[in-house]
Design goal:
mainly alpha; three-stranded antiparallel sheet; 14 helices; about 550 residues; Znf-RING_euk; rod-shaped; about 5% strand; Herpes Virus-1; single chain
Amino acid sequence: MGPFKGNKVWFSCPNCRPSVHAVPEAGQFPVSYTIEKLLRMLRRTSLASTPPSAEKDTAEPAHSPGTRPGEKGQTYLNDKVRSLLEKQEAKILAAIHNCQKVKAQLNQYETTVRGWGRQQQNRKNRLQTLVDPCIDARMLAQQEELSTSDKRQQVDQGEQQLHTLLQAVRKAASAGEAYETIVNADHVMEEQTQREEECLAMFPDVHTVTTIKKVIEVSHAALEAAATVQAAQQTAGVGGGAAGHASLPAAAASSIRDRVDVLMSQPLKICPRGAMEPARMDDKTAQLTLGRRDSREDDVQDCPMCMTVFDEIVQQRPRTLPCGHTFCTPCVNGLNVQGLVTCHNCHVVHAVPEVGHFPISFTIENLIRRMRRTLLASTPPSAEKDTAEPAHSLETRPGEKGQQGLNKKVRSLLEKQEAKILAAINNCQKVKAQLNQHETTVRGWGRQQLSLEDRLQSLVDQCNDARMLAQQEELSASDKRQQVNHGEHQLHTLLQAVRTAASGVEAYKTIEDSDHVMEEETQREKECLAMFPDVHTVTTIKKAVDADPTIDEIRTSS
């Protein structure tokens, strides 16, 4: 071929060198079938024009060096035909040798890509062991987020109840209403305290934090490993030598250990169990953690139902029910419904005795009288006068003038209850803030897990693609090997035909057939040499395979 001129390739004839011809668009000059026909006719003519005597004179004895053992039939062929057969035999033997070399290369290539496919399957399985924990960790984070949201809503609902009770405490206009409000507030605050303790015990969930943190670290390390190996492959090239590939995983692992991003950069500022206790232990709210005392038990001289002082003169005498609780006579009479009295404290139902009333507790009356005498004896008159305050000096909150009609004892209880409710509301707000922060944190964890899951899944998909590519390459190599093997069998058959040709016509036919088969086999060998190694296949699969040891090392070490 000559140089390019324009868009054409020019060819210089070796016989008449000054002549230059443009190569046709088909890429080659046409085959001269006429010349092939003439050559075949000349061969037939030369074989037909040779007299039998000449063949007999030129024939060699069977034991001569030119006659192969077991092929005595060719001793009757002339020298020309025998020479052609010997040359054809040599060409067939060379073609068979080439077939065997190509088959060996195809076998080796087929084994190699089969091994690559297995490695890709193993790597896919190992990566899947990272994807599955990612999914589990994401589900765990979602469950934790839902649980936190549920607790936050419960705390928020409790806070609303406390605000409602706070308004009721501030607006209580009678002793009965005050008592009912205090009882309800104690019950709600007890539930709220229990709910706060459950929240403090719930977050941070050590199992959730440990699992998610570990999965994030391992997943990031695996992704770093893949990125590092691919970058090194692109820099060094696929065929960089065995030494370069042997040192790559260790270098990648060293780089990864230094660069793995720990995603817990913003530590969770969750109040641990007991950290909220100081806020509860002020003077007004110490009862929240030490165990609430019932507000009705502050003074045994008062009826726990109407908050009035027991007094035998005004018929406020104490009467004890069979359950052991004591109330004033008007309150017990008010509880009497068709001869049955339900205790206001323990809700046990008692039948009214036949005498029509429960017995008076004379012991309590005696104790109250003794306590009053003791208090009067221990308090000097001057102190009583100094500490006595006029009725109008008691603290009255704006808009709550209705409480001015309550006695000092009831108002004092309401003020204490208000302080406790305010402290409980403050605790609710603290817990809600922490729950909001925890909910935001676990939601971020879930998003990180989803991102890692997608990136790891892309690596799994790459492994899948590389495995399918290796399988396709293996099938292609196997198909080519079978074709070469079939061609080799044909050549062996033709070799036997060449060695056993007994006439000129048979020899010519055998030579023609073998030429055709050898031409096909040569074309097939060229296709095989062009097929392997497929650079794209080798590059894709080898990158993935070289990344595998580092990822596996990180997965097992974690």
